[in-house]
Every structure is written in C-alpha cells, then in structure tokens.
C-alpha cells in the first residue's frame, strides 16, 4: 500500500467515531435557520454542508486543512530551485491534513507517475469533437469517456461493504487526477496548435510535467504549480465543489462526479470569469490602442460596464468580504515576473479603481478582486492566449480538492443529498403567517 493510502486509512479510522457521535448523540441540534431570502437566493450562506478539507473565512480567505495559503506556500516541500511547492504535497495535505515530508511527496509523485498513461480512446474522443467546440465541453466529455475504467463502479456492482467505499474511490481519484494534465495538454494542442502531443516526462512532478507537455519553459512550471494549488479547493458550497459532491452523493463514481464538477465550473459567474476578465481587458487594450489608460479613463470604462447592466468580471464574491488571498499571491508573482507586462498594468489599475466604484454603485457586497481577476493575465504572459482554455486549468486544480472531498464523503458515509423544495404559494403563506405573528 502506498504511504498516502496507508496514512489516509489511519486518518479515516480516527475520524469516523467523531462523525458517528455527532450524528447519533447530537443529530437534532440546530445549526442554522433558513430565511425566505436564502430559499429564493441560492441558499447563500446557509450552513448545511460539512467538509474538513478547507474552510473559507469571509475576512481571511481560504484555509486548506487549517493553514492559510501564505503558511502553506512556506511549509509545503518544493523542488530544488522551484519558487512554488509541489502539487503532490498539496494533495497529500488535502487528503490527510498533514504537511508531508519529501519522502511522502515522492510517494505521491510515484503514484501519479504510474497512472499517467491515457487510454488510446481518450485521444480519439478528443479528435472526434467538431471544430470550435469549447475546451470545457471536451474536457468534461474526455473525463466521462474514462468512466468505464472506474474501480468503484466495478466493485460496487460486484458487492462491497459500505465501510470500504473510500478505497476504490481513492484508486479512481488517483487514476483520474494523474491523467488530467495530459488530457488538458492534448485538448490545447488539438484546438489551438498542431495537434501533436509532447509525451509526458516521468521524471517531472505534476506542475513541471504539465509545463513540459504544454511546451512552455520555466518559470511556467511554477506558474502551473501556483495555479493548481490556488484553485484546488474553496470549501464545499461553491458550484463546482457542490456539483461534484452532489453527484457523488448518489454513489456515482469519480469520473461522473468530476465531469459534473467541470460542467458547473464552466459557468460565467464561476470558473469562466477568468476568461471573461481577459476578454474585457483585450477590449480595453484595443480601445486604448495599446496605451495605458489614465485613472479617469479606467474609471469611465468601469462605469460603462456597470451602466450597461453587466458585472465587472473578477470582482465580488459570494462569501469573501476582502481581497482574495489567492489574488494577492498571484499579484506577488506578477510583481516579480510580470512587472512590465501591459495587461498586469491594466489589472493593477483596476485593483485601484474598481473597489471604490463598486462601493459607490452600492450593489456588490464585496467590491474586492477575486482569484479570477489575475489568473488569466499570467497565462497570457506565458503564451497561452486562447482564454477559453483558462477554465480547463482551473478545472485541473479544482479536481484535486473535489476528489479529496469525495473520498472523505465515502469514508464518513455521507448520504445522498436531498434537500426539500416548497412552492411559491407556501413561501407566501409562511410570509403571511410571520406578519400575523408580529401583530
Ligand atoms: N460587478 C457588478 N455587480 C456586481 C458584482 C460585480 N463584480 N458583483 C456583484 N454584483 C451585483 C450582483 O450582480 C447583484 O446584483 P442584483 O442585486 O442586481 O442581482 C448584487 O451585486 C449583489 O450580489 P452579491 O450578493 O454581492 O454577489 P453574489 O453572491 O450574488 O454573486 C458573484 C457573487 C461572484 C457571482 C458576483 O460577485 C459576480 O458576478 N462577480 C463577477 C463575476 C466573477 O468574478 N465571478 C468569479 C467569482 C469567483 C469564483 O467563483 N471563481 O470561480
């Protein structure tokens, strides 16, 4: 058994009694109340999910397994000369809650390496897509195609004890995660380049191997590690994580669940926002004929968007109420590597002018930038100019967190999700009743 799987097993055995006790002894304790606003308003803020992989504090931003991103980037092992930690180390942390040693990271890297090779039919499915197909649709379909490989599905149909569900799910997750970089790199080559593929290099880690398959030299290996780590998890209520969890809750396997996760991520209010940012920046650059706008000009651009009834992409958040720490970490990278980049200058100007305007506009609860405001410009700088592809990169990262969550869902026996819906008539009656009670 791999070091990671053995450690995970020990953690699961330790954790199960905690969940069982909460359910058996305290199952009726009230956690939260639901308002009509939340029922109509996308369940915003309703405390109704549980995960130990990450927690999003509105003021502080995301913590993975209790660590802030800043702490993690200091503590996680990194390759010699690399600025960014190993993705493999992050995955070890997400699954076990422990910062891994170098040996433990190597073990995960070996496990991924053994499982990287894509079945031939995946290339054929990607090849068969009609031209101009969106990369997220191809990515989702390529993952679905591999569902026939699912161990969980085979074991389930063969008969397996509930307590063991996590184990084939873990195997499925390792098999799928190991393959995602190559699936993505091939989609990129097929859609935007010559359709040839650069074979994966077994001596390289997850991030460096992706950079290698994309044919982009250093520091794109660090860009990839940074990108995958920053996007890995954002607790359970966001659309992609929730979609993955929801589908998995019916005991659909990892392939079906991660494909659903990808579909949720493809929406413009979620993962697609990073490409919307680039599209918008390009329009501005065109209007300015490549010159840097003054503050007043940029303010006008922002107001024009708002007055047209559109959102400023890359700003605002459903939970966060301050600048996204993921944005700040990317900004640090940009200040070192992209200081003179035109789009970075635009982005930094937006960082200055948008929050006061959104405050004055008075609608957005959070006027600050989120992760998507900056991730695309880094990709653009290193030559990935096809911004439809940025959400695929987000998807590789997010799959790490969602897969870790699904393994733990199985380990702790979380049941099928089934919230209750009611009708508008019923809501109106509840509202009426509440009015009568006040009188
Ligand atoms: N520009 C203009 N208006 C905005 C806004 C923005 N960036 N952010 C929010 N608002 C508006 C909303 O559209 C809403 O208007 P209405 O009352 O007319 O419907 C109002 O402010 C209140 O919204 P909110 O409660 O602050 O925000 P929500 O929780 O409803 O939505 C969103 C959160 C991230 C979807 C939202 O801020 C948005 O659309 N931002 C732009 C798109 C974006 O950057 N998305 C990526 C978010 C990060 C992420 O999930 N990445 O995957």
Describe the structure.
- The mean pLDDT is 96.
- This protein has helices at 3-26, 36-40, 69-75, 87-96, 102-114, 120-128, 135-145, 151-158, 166-192, 206-214, 220-230, 239-249, 254-265, 273-287, 295-307, 325-337, 342-361, 372-381, 390-411, 424-438, and strands at 54-57, 61-64, 67-68.
- It has 20 helices and three strands.
- Strand 2 and strand 3 form a beta hairpin.
- A three-stranded antiparallel β-sheet has the order 1-2-3.
- It is mainly α and 439 residues long.
- Among the domains are: 109-268 and 385-411, Citrate Synthase, domain 1; 273-381, Orthogonal Bundle (Cytochrome p450-Terp, domain 2).
- Bound molecules: N-hydroxyamidocarboxymethyldethia coenzyme *A.
- N-hydroxyamidocarboxymethyldethia coenzyme *A is lined by residues 238, 269-271, 273, 306, 311-318, 363-366, 370, 372.
- The average pLDDT is 96
CATH superfamily caption of the domain at 109-268 and 385-411: Citrate Synthase, domain 1
Shape: globular
Q: Are any ligands bound, and if so which?
A: N-hydroxyamidocarboxymethyldethia coenzyme *A
Strand content: under 5%
The computed structural class is mainly alpha
The CATH architecture designation of the domain at 109-268 and 385-411 is Orthogonal Bundle
- CATH topology of the domain at 109-268 and 385-411, by name, is Citrate Synthase, domain 1
Strand order of the largest sheet: 1-2-3
Tell me the major beta sheet: 3 strands, antiparallel
């Amino acid at each position: 058994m791999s070091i990671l799987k053995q450690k995970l097993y020990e953690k699961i055995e330790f954790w199960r009694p905690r969940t069982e006790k909460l359910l058996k002894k305290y199952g009726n304790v009230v956690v939260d109340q639901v308002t009509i606003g939340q029922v109509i308003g996308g369940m915003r803020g309703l405390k109704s999910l549980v995960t130990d992989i990450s927690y999003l504090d509105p003021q502080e931003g995301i913590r993975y397994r209790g660590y802030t991103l800043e702490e993690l980037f200091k503590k996680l092992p990194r390759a010699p000369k690399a600025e960014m930690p190993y993705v493999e180390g992050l995955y070890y942390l997400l699954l076990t809650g422990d910062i891994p040693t170098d040996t433990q990271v190597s073990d995960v890297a070996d496990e991924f390496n053994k499982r990287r090779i894509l079945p031939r039919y995946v290339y054929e499915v990607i090849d068969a897509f009609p031209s101009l197909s969106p990369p997220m649709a191809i990515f989702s379909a390529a993952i679905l195609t591999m569902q026939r490989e699912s161990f969980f599905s085979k074991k389930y149909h063969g008969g397996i004890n509930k307590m063991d569900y996590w184990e084939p799910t873990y195997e499925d997750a390792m098999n799928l995660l190991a393959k995602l970089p190559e699936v993505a790199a091939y989609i990129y080559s097929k859609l935007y380049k010559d359709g040839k593929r650069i074979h994966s290099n077994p001596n390289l880690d997850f991030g460096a191997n992706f950079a290698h398959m994309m044919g982009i030299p250093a520091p794109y290996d660090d860009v990839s590690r940074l990108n995958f780590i920053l996007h890995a998890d954002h607790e359970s209520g966001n659309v992609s994580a929730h979609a993955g969890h929801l589908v998995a809750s019916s005991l659909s396997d990892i392939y079906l669940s991660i494909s659903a996760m990808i579909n949720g991520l493809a929406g413009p209010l979620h993962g697609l926002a990073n490409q919307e940012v680039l599209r918008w920046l390009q329009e501005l650059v065109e209007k300015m004929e490549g010159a840097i706008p003054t503050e007043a000009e940029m303010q006008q651009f922002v107001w024009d968007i708002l007055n047209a009834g559109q959102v400023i992409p890359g700003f605002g958040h459903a939970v966060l109420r301050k600048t996204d720490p993921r944005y700040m970490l990317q900004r640090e990278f940009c200040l070192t590597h992209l200081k003179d980049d035109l789009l970075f200058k635009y982005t930094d100007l937006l960082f200055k002018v948008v929050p006061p305007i959104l405050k004055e506009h008075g609608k957005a609860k959070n006027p600050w930038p989120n992760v998507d405001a900056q991730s695309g410009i880094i990709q653009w700088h290193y030559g990935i100019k096809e911004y439809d592809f940025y959400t695929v990169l987000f998807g590789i990262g997010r799959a790490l967190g969602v897969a870790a969550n699904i393994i733990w869902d199985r380990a702790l026996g979380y049941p099928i999700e089934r919230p209750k819906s009611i009708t508008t008539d019923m809501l109106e009656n509840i509202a009426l009743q509440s009015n009568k009670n006040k009188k």
